[in-house]
Design brief:
By secondary structure, the chain is mainly alpha-helical. The protein has one helix and no strands. The longest helix is centred in the middle third of the chain and has 80 residues.
C-alpha cells in the first residue's frame, strides 16, 4: 500500500513538472483527433439522413401498392358478397 502511495506521488509530481511540455507537444495530435471526430459525426449525420429518406420512400411505396391492391380487389369483393335477388337464381 505504501508503494502505491509513492507511485501516485511520483506520477503527480511528473504531471506537474512535465505536463505542460507534454500538452504542447501532444496538442496537434489531440486537435487532429477532435477534428476527425467532428468530421466523422458530420458524415454519420448525412448518412443517417439519407437512410431515413430511403426508408420513408420505401414505406410510402409499399403503402401506395397496398392501397392499389385494395382498390383493385374492391369490385371483386363487392360481387362476391352482394346478396342475390330472388329472381337471379
Amino acid at each position: 500500500m505504501r508503494g502505491n502511495f509513492f507511485v501516485g506521488v511520483a506520477i503527480g509530481a511528473g504531471a506537474v513538472l512535465f505536463g505542460p511540455s507534454l500538452w504542447k507537444s501532444g496538442r496537434p495530435a489531440i486537435k487532429g483527433a477532435v477534428r476527425a471526430g467532428i468530421e466523422g459525426y458530420g458524415v454519420a449525420r448525412i448518412k443517417a439522413a439519407q437512410f431515413a429518406e430511403e426508408v420513408e420512400d420505401l414505406v410510402a411505396e409499399v403503402a401506395h401498392e397496398m392501397q392499389e391492391a385494395v382498390a383493385e380487389a374492391a369490385p371483386t369483393v363487392e360481387k362476391a358478397v352482394k346478396p342475390k335477388k330472388k329472381g337471379d337464381g
